[in-house]
């Protein structure tokens, strides 16, 4: 169903982005002129970062409830970054999280945010990665424990996937135990390993690079309700405790 108010705002936002591209460095274009709710955002990697010179594309899906509900932003371009999944492109960024009772952060989505402000925030995330609030556990561990190797890996991926010019040689070959592993097909996992927990709730941590059994053990340790196997919104405090335990900090 058409949403005139949403579409009017989107058109205005896109027009402003076009006019300000030279200054802002970000742009968003409509994928199909018959559907304003599907956009692609583009920006170049910030200077003085491993991503410099690369071009990054973000998929943007705008919901019917926009601007009161946040769009879904997913990185199309493969990137080696602790706050963006190297497997799925999911982005860990407070301002695109829905603002509901289960979310304690004051920086969650607000109707005053725009496509432009989010794209600028994602670009800034490339300048200031935060391994302590990860979306990809493997990358976050490397960023914290081996920052120089992380920098080389991030630059190598920028060259291979984002078209950045190579400024440094490729990183040395990784030992097999820390090399990025191909994503597992979740549908092939034995359902018994979830021990009654909702698959999607467990998989959101698995997609960050953690093993299913370790995630389920953390759920059990903190006594999370199985809720009959149905999905429910996990409180942010629980999510933080689970990540800390998966990192061996709790």
From TrEMBL:
Family matches, as PROSITE patterns: UBC_1, UBC_2
Region of interest called Disordered, as start-end residue ranges on this chain: 163-189
Any GO molecular function: ATP binding
Active site feature: 92
Signal peptide: none
Keywords assigned: ATP-binding, Nucleotide-binding, Transferase, Ubl conjugation pathway
Domain named UBC core: residues: 5-163
Family from the record: Belongs to the ubiquitin-conjugating enzyme family.
Protein name from the UniProt record: Ubiquitin-conjugating enzyme E2 2
């Amino acid at each position: 169903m058409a949403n005139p108010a949403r579409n009017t705002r989107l058109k205005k936002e896109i027009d402003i982005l076009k006019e300000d591209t030279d200054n802002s460095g970000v742009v968003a274009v409509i994928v199909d002129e018959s559907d304003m709710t599907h956009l692609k955002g583009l920006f170049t990697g910030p200077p003085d970062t491993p991503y410099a010179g690369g071009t990054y594309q973000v998929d943007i899906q705008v919901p019917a409830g926009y601007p009161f509900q946040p769009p879904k932003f997913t990185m199309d371009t493969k990137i080696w970054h602790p706050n963006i999944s190297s497997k799925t492109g999911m982005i860990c960024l407070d301002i695109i999280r829905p603002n509901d009772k289960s979310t304690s952060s004051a920086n969650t989505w607000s109707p005053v945010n725009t496509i432009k402000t989010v794209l600028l925030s994602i670009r800034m995330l490339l300048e200031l990665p935060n391994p302590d609030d990860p979306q990809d556990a493997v990358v976050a561990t490397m960023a914290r424990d081996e920052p120089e190797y992380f920098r080389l890996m991030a630059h190598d991926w920028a060259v291979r996937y984002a078209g950045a010019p190579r400024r440094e040689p490729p990183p040395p070959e990784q030992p097999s135990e820390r090399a990025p592993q191909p994503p597992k097909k979740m549908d092939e996992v034995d359902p018994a390993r979830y021990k009654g927990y909702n698959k999607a709730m467990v998989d959101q941590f698995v997609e960050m690079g953690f093993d299913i059994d370790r995630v389920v053990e953390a759920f059990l340790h903190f006594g999370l309700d199985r809720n009959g196997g149905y999905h429910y919104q996990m409180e942010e405090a629980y999510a933080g405790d689970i990540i800390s335990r998966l990192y061996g900090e709790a």
